[in-house]
Design a protein that fits this description.
3 domains; alpha+beta; NAD-cap_RNA_hydrolase_NudC; hydrolase; three-stranded antiparallel β-sheet; Nucleoside Triphosphate Pyrophosphohydrolase; NADH pyrophosphatase activity; single chain; Znr_NADH_PPase; binds zinc ion
Length: 236
Amino acid sequence: MMDAALFHSDLMIAYCGNPLDRAENCRGDEDWLLKACQKGRFLAVRSGKVAVHGGMPPTLFYSTYAQMAPLIEAQADCVFLGVQQDQTPLFAVRCPKEWELPTDAIQASRPLLFLDGRSLAMQLSSPAHDQGITGIVAQALAILSWHARHRFCARCSSTTVARRGGYQRYCEACNSEHYPRTDPVAIMVPVRGDFCLLGRQPTFPPGMYSALAGFVESGESLELRCAVKCMKKPGS
Ligand SMILES: [Zn+2]
């Protein structure tokens, strides 16, 4: 059993605490989505990175519908993430590599830049920071990555189209629905007394160690994965 003392107030678990109401009951309503889009905020995602105001701590940069309309009308991937606590709809849009952040939104004191999820989590690792940002960014990057990799039907290879605010792809050729893939994983830190077990890959830079982690296979329990992961390979 994990030492409860590890879960002290200085520990933050990245990508948790997403505060958005995903409004599942509204996703299938195209009229509602259109109105939400026109009054919504937009996260700009480019090459797997999200636009943020730099500095410590970084904060999310929200584009307006007017700024994103050219991309949306050009059929850029646009997904509805959910509704923020102030009832503002939040979307994420994939921007082409050559796309630049709006010049009228760039503030010299808070430079705008694109940051990957891990770097953002590292910079928001204190409980004093907004715990929900990394969860929102994880959602945005994951769903846009799924769209980029699943444009064609797995049954008939026809081109699929996004539906339900980006949480479904539909094949009009064979009438099949496709949903975002979820890969469960387990991550663990075995502890004994004041010691814990970490690991490292040959590709890690010198001095870098990490918790142990692995994907969970179909029908495999998380508890079994944790136990097996901590054992030596058979024959070694
Ligand atoms: Zn198909």
